[in-house]
Design a protein that fits this description.
- It is a single chain.
- By secondary structure, the protein is mainly alpha-helical.
- It has four helices and no strands.
């Protein structure tokens, strides 16, 4: 079914409960490592593997991948929430590893 071309485009600016929950969980995970950890990984030229593994264990790696391919099925909105919160905690490149 195609969207109605006459319908107004709506961009929700208030996060859904699901997005807020994702953001809270990612923030807790990333902040548990602290800024020194992120800085030391950056200075050593190595990825923040432990942070990546913690995010993966919580189910945030592949959050944007469709469920029928084994992902979380939340698309770019889910990925954006994870990336923004990881970056705000000092892990700007964690999703690029």
């Amino acid at each position: 079914m195609s969207p109605d071309p006459e319908a107004p485009l709506v961009l929700p600016l208030v996060p859904s409960e699901q997005e807020a929950s994702i953001r809270d969980a990612v923030r807790r995970i990333c902040s548990s490592f602290g800024p020194r950890y992120a800085r030391s990984c950056h200075e050593a030229g190595r990825p923040p593997r432990e942070a990546w593994e913690a995010l993966a264990k919580a189910g945030f790696v592949g959050i944007n991948v469709p469920e029928h391919w084994g992902g979380g099925g939340l698309g770019l909105v889910g990925l954006q929430a994870v990336c923004e919160e990881a970056a705000a905690s000092g892990f700007g490149s964690v999703m690029l590893v």
